[in-house]
Design goal:
single chain; about 350 residues; alpha/beta; Rossmann fold; 2 domains; five-stranded parallel β-sheet; 15 strands; about 15% strand
């Protein structure tokens, strides 16, 4: 994979730099509940300040507001960012980009307004790189554009899965809708030595076979209703009682998946094995998390639910790379062009 030019190579001394970060973090009671993405943005911002940028203008979206909405104001995020970064009057954080409907429309007027505030542009928002928005793609055509340190690392780590994975390469894919991930399943099936599928996707593939060769669960934890405390029992995956739902992979599948993961030298995981938000149906996802963390392999985890499972299990520090972009990582692995990356020159 050819990488875009890096912020490391940009001459920023005495210049204004616009940075598109991914500061889309959860808020609770008007405060940042999880600052992981804010912390991930710090290395690029520190590099620019250390190299003498006269001003660093940071922009990001936050949530999915339908217009200006106090519940999605950037202020709590700005406050936490400056707290972590250290107060610096050279740093300015713009309001939520999605307060302006021109953002998602990739409006040239908004891109021009953003570009007018800086001399260079740095895209460090891998989680939004698959969106052709004014702040992620439009502005990159109006200023000298560079990839930030986080975006660069994401592309290197995920590109490694595409270009030169050490074998055996085992991919684990879960989640709810097969149509959302059929493209990446096809891509991984061509590249990986095994693709293990769990979650509702596995049921859909069993009911509607596709041309993708994957390993499906042999048993599931079935529930009488889609409820956290519903009656449940372990049954063969192809013998779920009428009206019941498979809400987790069963013990035999957990053991088989863990055994296959243990043989790997490269592992990619995206998507839970069941309804892991409910403790009674979380054992399959937890078993995969533990197996990935224990593997003597290069491990990459992407996707909000998978990352959450790894973090809740206290295993994040045992994963080689935890991606900040679920949708972007899947599109990259599918072989799609990411607009936010394609807009940055490679020289």
């Amino acid at each position: 994979m050819e990488l875009p030019r890096s912020v490391r190579d940009a001459d920023v001394a005495g210049r204004r730099v616009l940075v598109r970060a991914d500061l889309n973090v959860p808020l609770e009671d008007g405060r940042v509940a999880d600052d992981t993405r804010i912390r991930a943005a710090l290395p690029t911002l520190r590099l620019l300040l250390e190299r003498g940028a006269s001003e660093v203008v940071v922009c990001s979206h936050l949530g999915r507001p339908k217009g200006p909405d106090p519940a999605f104001a950037i202020e709590p995020v700005r406050a936490r960012l400056l707290e972590l970064l250290g107060a610096d009057d050279r740093v300015r954080v713009l309001e939520n980009t999605r307060f302006d409907p021109r953002e998602t429309a990739n409006d040239p007027g908004l891109a021009a307004e953003l570009a007018a505030q800086a001399d260079l542009y740095v895209d460090d928002a891998f989680g939004s790189a698959h969106r052709a928005h004014a702040s992620t793609e439009g502005v990159a055509h109006l200023l000298p554009a560079y990839a930030g340190l986080l975006l660069e690392r994401e592309l290197r780590e995920l590109g490694r899965l595409l270009d030169r994975p050490e074998r055996p390469f085992v991919a684990i894919v879960g989640g709810a809708k097969v149509e959302d991930k059929i493209g990446v399943l096809r891509s991984l099936a061509r590249r990986a030595d095994a693709v293990l599928v769990g979650g509702k996707m596995a049921e859909e593939i069993r009911e509607h076979p596709s041309d993708v060769e994957v390993t499906l669960p042999t048993d599931v934890v079935a529930a009488a209703a889609f409820e956290a405390d519903a009656e449940s029992k372990v049954v063969p995956a192809d013998a779920v009682p009428e009206g019941w739902l498979g809400l987790d992979v069963g013990p035999a599948t957990r053991e088989a998946f863990a055994g296959r993961i243990a043989t790997a030298k490269t592992v990619f995981w995206n998507g839970p094995m069941g309804v892991f938000e409910w403790p009674r149906f979380a054992e399959g996802t937890l078993a995969v998390a533990q197996a990935v963390a224990a593997a003597d392999a290069h491990t990459v985890v992407g996707g909000g639910d998978s990352v959450r499972a790894i973090e809740e299990a206290g295993l994040a520090d045992r994963i080689d790379w935890v991606s900040t972009g679920g949708g972007a990582s899947l599109e990259l692995l599918e072989g799609k062009e990411l607009p936010g990356v394609a807009a940055i020159p490679t020289d």
